Amino acid sequence: MKILIPNYNLPDSFVDNVSFTLRTMGHEVINMGEVSVSKAYSKILKTVKDLHQKAFPQLSKQEKFILSTIQITSVDVLLSLTQCIDEEVLFECKKKNVTTISWWGDTAANMQKHGLFSDYWDFVYIKDIYATQKLKSLGINAEQLLEAMNPAWHKPSHQQTNTDLVIAGSFYDYRQFITKKLIQNNVDVALYGPPLPRWVFPEIKKQHTQKYIVKETKAKVFGSALGVLNSTAMSEFDSVNCRAFEIAGCGGLHILENRKSIETCFEPGKEVLVYNTFEELLEIIDFAKKQPKEILKIREAACIRAHSEHTYKKRLEYILSKI
């Protein structure tokens, strides 16, 4: 199949992992090309883009890319990854007999304009079960589908060699506060991710590595650490992010705030360690330091589960089987 993914290819991103996997499966993939981490997270470029959009409302570069692509080449599938696509663009795709699929990997709260509420989506996949039910209640062909890990680089390449608790990603309010509390409790933390916001706590700014980890480097960091804390934003509610599968795939110790949805992916206590309070989190960290043999069993069990059940290939085979 010829599959159009209308976005830029940031290393180890949703777009990158899906594009890579589809190509290994023998499909032709069209996306918008590579983009650097510095450009993708540039605050100046984002501000200019937002101001221009407010002053001169128009289709996004991604939406224009869709329209121009379907005019010059025959496309079988539009696969939108966590994007809100204007109905005008979706309608043009339907006129060209393009199958339209949305796979939303973010919290539903981050949708813009009409979000996924359109009659022109053939299939909608979203990780949040509550959002799935709301979409289905209005006749949208929606189904819950979680993200995944890429065994090409999310693999167990390193054994634990340090006592760091890794925290990787954007430092929004919740992640900042829990990180600050960990630092105040003398927990060794290793902090990674895109540029920090201006309002970051000084303790976090001081300890942040200023490194954005991807692919094999991510596998090394996750595997070498005592554990990886998978904290999520307040808007995430009861869903599972891609980090859960990446940590497990890399052979890391996955530590997560307790939520019902994780039970559909991993077995708490045997494949992932969950906590309900900050005190319980400190107890898990202490346990991980004192019981390395038990922790190794958890790491290995989670890794096996991730590589057997939670790969992008598994997810994409399911998506394409529905067409």
From TrEMBL:
It holds the Pfam family Glyco_trans_1_2. Residues 176-320 form the Spore protein YkvP/CgeB glycosyl transferase-like domain. InterPro entries: YkvP/CgeB_Glyco_trans-like. This is Spore protein YkvP/CgeB glycosyl transferase-like domain-containing protein.
